[in-house]
Amino acid sequence: LLFICSPGNPTSKSIPLSDIRTLASSPLYNGLVIVDEAYIDFSSTPSSTSLVTEYDNVVVLQTLSKAFGLAGIRCGFAIGPADVIQLMNNVKAPYNVNKLTSDAANNALKNTALLEKNVREVLEQRELVGRELEGIDF
Q1: How much of the chain exceeds pLDDT 70, in percent?
Q2: Helix or strand or coil: residue 46?
């Protein structure tokens, strides 16, 4: 298993899709390339989800914790080839997502306006903090 965080925390640096393609197609690596995209909503780099249909060894992980602001419900998801997702389902605990979490997640996914608002506010604050920090004479 090769885990890639893109974009990474705290640097917010993203791994180019071309690099992930190179890893996924390399004859030197015979394993899964797992891309953790917890912060993808704050990045200008496209999601790696498009690679899932191109490569049978790419799995993308995302969460509702960051941009949706729902860390308390502890809900994320994996996007990947059907056989890999089936293996993951085979080893997970039964009923591992409770009704309250499921309802909150479904409501959040239906409310993209809130997602867009949260992302916009975080990006504005990131810009503000960056400018203020650059103005400090260290």
Answers
A1: 100
A2: coil
Whole-model pTM over 0.85: yes
Q: Are 73 and 85 in contact (CB under 8 A)?
A: no
Summarised one tens digit per residue, pLDDT across range 107-130 is: 999 999 999 999 999 999 999 999
Three-state DSSP at 33 gives strand
How many residues can be counted in the chain?
138
HSE value, Cβ hemisphere, 13 Å, CA-based, for 48? 34
Take residue 62 and report the two structure tokens written for it.
Answer: 């995302």
- Extract the tokens encoding 51: 């690679």
Q: Give me the phi and psi of 77, to 5 degrees please.
A: -155, 160
136/129 Cα distance (integer angstroms): 11
